[in-house]
Design a protein that fits this description.
- The protein is mostly helical.
- The protein has one domain: Cytochrome c-like domain (Cytochrome Bc1 Complex, Chain D, domain 2, Orthogonal Bundle).
- It has six helices and no strands.
- Helix 4 packs antiparallel against helix 6.
- The longest helix is centred in the N-terminal third of the chain and has 16 residues.
- The chain is globular.
- It starts with a helix and ends with a helix.
- The structure holds heme C (HEC).
- Heme C binds next to helix 3, helix 4 and helix 5.
Length: 108
């Protein structure tokens, strides 16, 4: 495994444990994207993932992105790379995924 990916994966539980939960209404997609660790793999602008084989999320259709998140969380989507992301999906509710998906669609 690449060192960059390894350090991201190792830092996720620490980041999650030290985060103060915020009320959903006070959060927007951009904040959720950072606090729920999506940024660690998909990049600050959601367009420069840490590994080139990881998908770019900026500008995706909100329904497509939302459905992929749901399927990745549930296991309905499962290929060689899916497991990397599934590990953090307990951090987000369906409502939060919706908010993030709507925000991603506004990018680029
Ligand atoms: C540990 C790295 C990692 C983290 C953290 C992560 N993802 Fe992912 N994400 C991936 C990988 C790898 C894929 C591709 C999985 C596959 O091909 O099945 C992916 C796929 C996706 C997709 C589908 C994109 C497409 O084009 O089909 C969406 C949407 C997405 N991630 C959103 C998120 C959101 C939102 C978060 C935060 C809650 C998040 N990801 C956190 C690695 C990660």
């Amino acid at each position: 495994m690449m060192n960059a990916l390894k350090s991201v994966l190792l830092s996720i539980p620490i980041a999650a444990a030290t985060m103060t939960p915020l009320p959903l209404l006070a959060m927007d997609g951009a904040e959720l994207y950072v606090t729920k660790t999506c940024v660690a793999c998909h990049g600050k602008d959601a367009d420069t993932p840490i590994l080139p084989i990881y998908p770019k999320l900026a500008g995706q259709s909100p329904d497509y992105a939302y459905n992929q998140m749901v399927d990745i969380k549930s296991g309905a989507r499962d290929n060689g790379m899916t497991a990397a992301m599934r590990g953090v999906m307990h951090l987000v509710t369906e409502e939060e995924m919706r908010v993030i998906a709507d925000w991603l669609a506004t990018l680029k």
